[in-house]
Amino acid sequence: MSQLKIAALAGDGIGPEVMREALNVLRTAARKFNLDLAITEAPVGWAGIDAAGQALPDATLSLCRASDAILFGSVGLPDRDPTIPKEQRPERAALLRLRKEFSLFANLRPVQLPKALAHACPLRPERQGNGLDLLVVRELTGGMYFGQPKKTEDLGNGQQRATDTMVYTTAEIERIAHVAFQSARLRRKKLTSIDKANVLENGILWREVVTRIGKQYADVSLEHMFVDNAAMQLMLRPTQFDVVLCENMFGDILSDEAAALAGSLGMLPSASLGNTTGDKTFGLFEPAGGTAPDIAGKDLANPIAQILSSAMMMTYSFGRADVGAAIEGAVQRAIQQGLRTGDIYSAEDASARRVGTKEMGAAIAAAV
Ligand code: NAD
What we know:
Number of strands: 14
Bound molecules: nicotinamide-adenine-dinucleotide
Radius of gyration: 21 Å
Number of helices: 11
Structural class: alpha/beta
Oligomer: single chain
Distance between the termini: 20 Å
CATH superfamily of the largest domain: Isopropylmalate Dehydrogenase
Helix content: 25-40%
């Protein structure tokens, strides 16, 4: 395989701490699998503003354009300079800009709850089966968040009217459906497509297109579910799901609901995928959580979300599911060994040992 060019943007808060561990794990995996990785680090977020006066410095954006994938930490520090205009704040000026710049239309959020961390899940143990393992695939650039018209009008009688428009084209549904079916092929080959076909025109089209694309993936079993039922089923019987496919707003809501099942943001990676060129798919890979200013700089952050984000990069951007699986396996082994950062630690578990960011990262790298 050709050289894999990775832009590593650690960002703010716990970003640099967890990124250091993820890069160590990646470099270890590269040695084991004989990969030619070219990792270049660059500032983003407040770190970008401090270094170059912009949340996404021009040099950082150029680096991303010259890379095959972005491994992103997180950006934003709520207590830094409230006077800065919101369009220049890191969350908007860096992250949203990158999503737009690279047309990242598919958001993948896996939720895994190993049996050993059952205590971290808000559901009763009998609802967790043998541990939870599902993947939410969310369409990221269409639907109600972007559809036009989008406006608030003054009706003149002290009343206003706000309009948002839910719009999807066949092509937009087709491309996200392909991502979902292909993701299901890498997993247990079951896809649940979410819609509101009983009420919305969008839902009818969504269901038709997903069903048609599904014929190209005869090895994946497809079912359809209304979004309100899906919200309920995630709480009642989450083990029935493998890959869950949603349009933008339904996915925003259901992915957070599903994330709550894992108990800690520190365990949750994510991927945002764009276009495929040759054997590589451009993507931005980042933890689901933010900069966690409350624990930053104290060796308390859980590096697993960042490490699993790098595993997703190997699987989804570079087509190296074997490397991704090796990193995921190493995370599982560290958990089986009883290592726990504070967010997943329970004093009731006699086999658990509380460790810091660095020790957890080093144990995972060793397990690779
Ligand atoms: P947060 O996700 O940073 O923190 C919420 C809680 O989860 C905190 O108690 C934190 O300690 C904990 N947490 C998060 N990640 C953890 C980890 N790896 N290990 C252990 N505990 C972890 O959310 P917040 O406090 O609402 O936001 C802080 C800043 O992060 C804000 O400026 C926000 O805008 C930004 N943010 C950025 C992103 C991103 O860059 N993608 C995402 C969400 C929030």
